[in-house]
Design a protein that fits this description.
single chain, mainly alpha, two-stranded antiparallel ribbon, two-stranded antiparallel sheet, 9 helices, 4 strands, 4% strand, globular
């Protein structure tokens, strides 16, 4: 994917920060009532795109340059973002879900753009420069949102950075980092906060 296409894609991805931003001001029940139908619609569109050449052609004409090559054979990143939103809000305490979803949106965007532009040092499946941007921004988000739990914020950001950098898969199936990052870092932060750290 060309860098300009990646910038466009990540600009759209950054808009997913609206999920935790809005969730901060509404109830869990209302957040789920909004996101669940959106997830169902995105999932339906993805399934139609994957099964129908006509729908796939229509989507490609309008948004084809925003899809990665591998998304032609699996669910789109946008669907995973909505799934991550629903699961994080459902599974985690509100403040933890907000941090995890901001890290998914903001830190992933910074890691991708900085890594592609300035990345020189390989690290796992990504670059040291991109991963450093991911970790630093995740720490900032975590500490600002969880000031009483700095260790949980730092370890949550570290978990998110490692998961984002690793090429995760279950068998032959790729695990999308839009889903893996918020669920793993949210789980780590929840466990640490429950332990009183």
């Amino acid at each position: 994917m060309r860098y300009i296409d990646e910038v466009r894609r990540k600009t759209i991805h950054l808009s997913s920060a609206l999920i935790p931003a809005i969730y901060a001001f509404i109830s869990t029940e209302l957040a789920l009532a909004i996101l669940t139908p959106l997830l169902a619609a995105a999932l339906l569109l993805d399934l139609l795109r994957l099964r129908s050449a006509q729908v796939r052609s229509w989507v490609d004409r309008r948004m084809g340059n925003l899809f990665r090559r591998e998304e032609s054979r699996r669910l789109s990143g946008a669907t995973y973002v909505l799934l991550a939103g629903v699961l994080s809000i459902w599974l985690f305490p509100k403040r933890v879900a907000i941090v995890a979803l901001f890290i998914m949106s903001v830190s992933d965007t910074l890691a991708s753009l900085i890594g592609r532009r300035y990345g020189r040092t390989p690290l796992l499946g990504k670059s040291l420069e991109g991963s450093a941007a991911h970790f630093a921004s995740g720490v900032v988000v975590g500490i600002l949102s969880l000031p009483a739990h700095p260790l949980a914020a730092v370890l949550g950001a570290l978990t998110a950075t490692l998961v984002e950098a690793l090429p995760l898969s279950i068998g032959r199936h790729h695990v999308d980092d839009n889903l893996a990052v918020p669920l793993t870092c949210g789980a780590v932060m929840t466990l640490l906060i429950q332990d009183g750290l």
